[in-house]
Amino acid sequence: MTVGRTLLRSMLAAVVVAAGLQAADADEWHTTSSLIGPSKYGENFQRYDYVNPDAPKGGTYNSVVSGTFDSFNPYIVQGSPAAGLQPFGGGLLYDTLMDQATDEGSVSHPLIADAYKYPTDYSSATYRLDPRAKWHDGQPITTDDVIWSFQVLKANSPMYSRYFENVTDAVAISDREVEFHFDQKGNRELPKILGDLVVLPKHWWEGTDANGKKRDITKGTLEPPLGSAAYKIASFKAGSEIVWQRVPDYWGAKLAVKIGRENFDTQHFTYILDDNASWEAFKKGGLDDIKPENSSKRWATFYDFAAIKAGDVIKQEFKTTSPEPMQAFMLNQRHKLFADRLVRAALTYPFDFESMNRTLFFGFNTRTHSYFQGTELASSGLPQGKELEILEKYRDRLPPELFTQEFKLPVYDSPQAERKYLKQAVDLFAQAGWVIKGGKMVNAKTGEPFKFEILGSGETDQVISSPWIANLRKIGVDATLRIVDPSQYTNRVRNFDYDVITGQLQQSESPGNEQRDFWSSKAADTPASRNYSGIKNPVVDALVDRIIFATDRDDLVATTHALDRVLLWNYYVVPQYYRAVVWLAYWNKFGIPEKQPGYRGADIDSWWIDADKEKALAAKYKGSN
């Protein structure tokens, strides 16, 4: 899952290159961090250049959410956290030490911490807290809160545990400074990404509730927790509704990352189980103000209702420059059916992207060919130079084709393509010991049929899976799709209880510690990790470690090329597609800055409610909600 995308106080600290932070900048206080190059804002970051610093505060942003919720604790495996909370980061409730930039990759700006520093050997990092930082009850955010948060998150959160695997402890070295110690030197990314640590209120979580019962951070709760960020929970109906209210005296409102942002007084989330009902709710108005659209068919053909024609609902495309995710059918190797690389390769050939894009997706999509699509980190051609040098160490444990053939996915570009690629799939199955008998793909020795289930949670899964299922059946593979409700889907995915799912893995331009959560052998056995395919490969483990401890940018790029190539040639997934745009449809009640951050595509936190527009809509659609 996804996981980051510099302003420094001195000229020395202004230059940040390579895979991580320069040793020359060590022991200097950094006010902004970067893993690739200096921030575009130079040395004096005052606010994002796209926001309206005078954006008015007020109004309500309404949103519909799929599924249900049963917890306000997102940092444990159990339960479904409510909208506004998230398992990594602070969501609407909590602030983090630093805030990831919205308009640059691998850059973070001050939030709870106003600066940080690290030694030349990257063996530790020290964060200095902003003395103004406080909780919603007025108590200051302290070094004790930071240390306690690090300890409980590493112990209970699968994401933070792997992200900070090399962080051994945190100690207070003054009333404002926390020093984090690492178990290895040379992890150039680690000092920076400690800024992603969410800080939780120790005094609240270790206290008692209204009934005198001691709270427990390791358990779910529906008691609204104490927070520190711009919003707090105002009200809720368990499982069906949650309302967030902007905190009028929020301590960080004047920080550079907050100016012109977080403008809605209220954020109201309504839960609806059915996707069609959610669509109707958006068309009607009142429950859902902004609809991020993922369906090509709906984007192309469904936006013709009355409010669109009247200009009261606006369709807008926001182009993005960030890396594209690997969206794919994830083949769960925890099941022996997918243990053979030849079988996994065979399953790749019946996926006819070109026909799907033409007939289902209106030509909007592009085939994904890399786990690092859209970046210099994507492998191509044959391995050479430093990448080849790295891969040679593992030659006897890698597919031989990796060194002699360019990795290519099937391209259904002619009427003959289907016959060609389905035959290749059958041939690969035969090499793996599977044959077609009586129209069924069966194990040549045991007669066991090749049968699996794709787990899905909505209509989109039906659209994506059906053509693949149809082609698989042409070669005797019995693939089926099972749609379950969102809560059941989430729980089953957390516990790897599936044969195949459609999943997404979002990379950054500076991969590092999060790669363990995606690919490591340890993550394969850890519930709620993002190693959806259950990869346990010593070569992958070694390459992930080399990425994390890359000596410079060149080493990082070469090693990531190698990792990408090893993942592709092992056919752990069947790649699908991406779109380098964000599609949003929204009711015309917002003020929107003329410019939006190209890296993210759109920053809804920079929008505001236009009172006149909202009033006009309310009068026109009176009673619609």
TrEMBL record:
Residues 109-523 form the Solute-binding protein family domain. SUPFAM superfamilies: Periplasmic binding protein-like II. Residues 506-528 are annotated as: Disordered. Gene3D superfamilies: Dipeptide-binding Protein, Domain 3 (3.10.105.10), Periplasmic binding protein-like II (3.40.190.10). One of its GO terms (molecular function) is peptide transmembrane transporter activity. It is found in: Periplasm. One of its GO terms (biological process) is peptide transport. InterPro entries: Peptide/Ni-bd, SBP_5, SBP_5_dom. One of its GO terms (cellular component) is outer membrane-bounded periplasmic space. Its main location: periplasm. Residues 1-23 form the signal peptide. It comes from the Bacteria. Keywords: Signal. Belongs to the bacterial solute-binding protein 5 family. This is ABC transporter substrate-binding protein. It comes from Mesorhizobium neociceri. The lineage of its organism: Bacteria, Pseudomonadati, Pseudomonadota, Alphaproteobacteria, Hyphomicrobiales.
